[in-house]
Design goal:
Layout: E1 15-18, E2 26-29, E3 34-36, E4 39-41, E5 48-51, E6 54-57, E7 69-73, E8 76-83, E9 88-89, E10 95-96, E11 103-106, E12 111-114, E13 121-122, E14 129-135, E15 138-144, E16 151-152, E17 168-173, E18 176-180, E19 185-187, E20 190-192, E21 199-202, E22 207-210, E23 222-225, E24 233-236, E25 241-243, E26 248-250
Antiparallel strand pairs: 1-2, 3-4, 5-6, 7-8, 9-10, 11-12, 13-16, 14-15, 17-18, 19-20, 21-22, 23-24, 25-26
Length: 251
């Protein structure tokens, strides 16, 4: 009996396992590198995490229970923080296309705000009458005045709650923040400093913004460009080598 062993020469650099059909696409890297999109790289790019030697995408946001919710609480996906365009956020942290009775739609914040009850007033108009009687001995005029009263009734309704989110200045509901204190950044109803992994601080909006999964890339044969430049490659596709000086890929 003769046993023949076929060794596949992987074309991807630092690759120890690939298929004969696609030798330029790596399936397993050596112990010094990690696998990312068929190539072996020194470390996982921004927006991914190392899971057993494989770079996996970091989820950007939790899946919300309400299909009309754009962003929800990561600890409670039934609590919405921001609705999709055209929908309004209620005080119950849900999304509606028309604000319920007793609230008004704020087109700037896209939130339903408690409506201020109008002032109800009742006025009684003051009237006066004069009657005149005449006798044979002369005339006597006797004025008779009837005076009414004016009254005004005012009704107002105020709704308040305690904001229990740490480092928060303004809440939309007791556990959901909409504006953090100075030096803190808003992310999914909570206040952070520093921003958590997978996000970057935005000093203009004072929010933690998700890092794009796939930044734009204009470099030929590049698997991923640098996060700050679409003209410089960070990781080349399998079979191409990175020129760290020029940020290009060559065979």
């Amino acid at each position: 009996t003769t046993t023949t062993t076929t060794t596949i020469a992987c074309e991807a650099i630092n690759c120890v396992l690939c298929s004969a059909e696609t030798p330029d696409v790596c399936e397993q890297c050596d112990t010094e590198t990690v696998l990312f999109r068929g190539a072996c790289v020194d470390s996982c790019p921004i927006g991914t995490v190392n899971n057993g030697g494989v770079c996996e995408e970091i989820p950007k946001e939790p899946l919300c229970d309400d299909p009309n919710c754009a962003t929800c609480d990561p600890l409670n996906t039934a609590t919405c923080i921001e609705c999709i365009p055209g929908w309004f956020l209620t005080s119950q942290a849900s999304c509606v296309d028309e604000c319920p009775a007793g609230t008004t739609a704020n087109l700037e914040t896209m939130e339903c705000e408690t409506a201020t009850s109008p002032t109800a007033s009742t006025t009684v108009t003051t009237t006066s009458t004069t009657s005149t009687s005449t006798t044979d001995a002369g005339s006597t005029t006797t004025p008779t005045m009837t005076t009414g009263t004016t009254s005004t009734a005012t009704t107002s309704t105020t709704t308040s709650f305690v904001c229990d989110v740490e480092n928060c200045d303004t809440c939309v509901s007791p556990g959901v923040c909409s504006m953090c204190s100075d030096t803190f950044y808003l992310l999914q109803g909570a206040c952070w400093n520093p921003c958590p992994t997978g996000t970057v601080p935005n000093d203009t909006t004072m929010t933690c913004d998700a890092i794009p999964k796939d930044p734009p890339c204009n470099v030929d044969n590049c698997a991923r460009c640098e996060a700050t430049s679409a003209e410089r490659c960070e990781t080349c596709v399998a079979g191409f080598a990175l020129d760290p000086v020029n940020g290009t890929c060559s065979a």
